[in-house]
């Protein structure tokens, strides 16, 4: 036997077990609950146009905030743990689990933190180095958290960095003709 998961907007996902001796199935879909996320900046102002990826088991969906900063998450079960992933230009990415409950946890306020950026130029002596492999590291972590290639003028930019707290970063650049 195999299975098929039906995912219909606003309804709770339904998993069907398929058997070789059946060629049709009668299904009843159950309308899901709606959870609301209020997405604000640090000043308490709503942010519109934010994409919210949310998932739990076979449920995977995207909601976008309206002008009032509210995103409606549809097709939810009465209680469930939702993985939230929010990525918005000029803000630090937000990832969290939300224990949604249709009776007392239907709403959640999320405050996105404005991000910072760092830029520079890769040079060898006075000469700009184009196409250098530039990597950004957070102090204490040996794995690059961002990578880019330098532009024609040697310039590079890393954005969406957390500007709060005591985080330190360092940058490494390498070019096959010039070395490190």
* Secondary structure tally, helices: 0
Largest sheet: 4 strands, antiparallel
- Which spans have pLDDT < 50 for at least 5 consecutive residues? none
Q: Kindly estimate the percentage of residues that lie in beta strands according to DSSP.
A: over 45%
Side-by-side strand order of the widest sheet: 5-4-7-8
Which structural category do the helix and sheet elements fall into? Answer: mainly beta
Topology, number of strands: 16
Helix content estimate: under 10%
- Based on CA atoms alone, the radius of gyration comes out at 23 Å
Q: Could you walk me through the main structural features you see in this protein, from its secondary elements to its overall organization?
A:
With 180 residues, the chain is mainly β. It has strands spanning 2-6, 14-18, 33-40, 51-56, 59-64, 70-76, 79-86, 94-101, 107-111, 115-121, 123-124, 127-128, 133-138, 146-149, 155-162, 169-174. A hairpin with a 2-residue loop joins strand 4 and strand 5 (59-64). The protein is elongated. The relative contact order is 0.15.
List keywords for this structure.
mainly beta, 3-stranded mixed sheet
Any chance you could write out the topology, listing elements then pairs?
Layout: E1 2-6, E2 14-18, E3 33-40, E4 51-56, E5 59-64, E6 70-76, E7 79-86, E8 94-101, E9 107-111, E10 115-121, E11 123-124, E12 127-128, E13 133-138, E14 146-149, E15 155-162, E16 169-174
Parallel strand pairs: 3-9
Antiparallel strand pairs: 1-2, 3-6, 4-5, 4-7, 7-8, 10-15, 11-12, 13-14, 13-16
């Amino acid at each position: 036997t195999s299975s098929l998961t039906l995912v219909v907007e606003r309804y709770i996902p339904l998993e069907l077990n398929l058997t070789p001796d059946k060629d049709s199935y009668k299904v009843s879909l159950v309308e899901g609950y709606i959870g609301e996320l209020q997405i604000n900046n640090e000043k308490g102002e709503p942010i519109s146009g934010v994409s919210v990826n949310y998932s739990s088991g076979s449920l995977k969906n995207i909601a976008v905030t309206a002008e009032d900063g509210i995103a409606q998450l549809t097709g939810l079960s009465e209680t469930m743990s939702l993985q939230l992933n929010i990525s918005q230009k000029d803000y630090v990415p937000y990832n969290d689990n939300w224990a949604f409950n249709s009776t007392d946890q239907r709403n959640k306020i999320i405050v996105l933190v404005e991000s910072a950026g760092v830029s520079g130029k890769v040079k060898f002596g006075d000469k700009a180095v184009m196409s250098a492999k530039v990597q950004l590291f957070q102090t204490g972590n040996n794995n690059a958290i961002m990578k880019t290639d330098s532009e024609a003028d040697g310039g590079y930019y890393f954005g969406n960095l957390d500007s709060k707290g005591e985080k330190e970063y360092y940058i490494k650049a390498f070019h096959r003709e010039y070395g490190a």
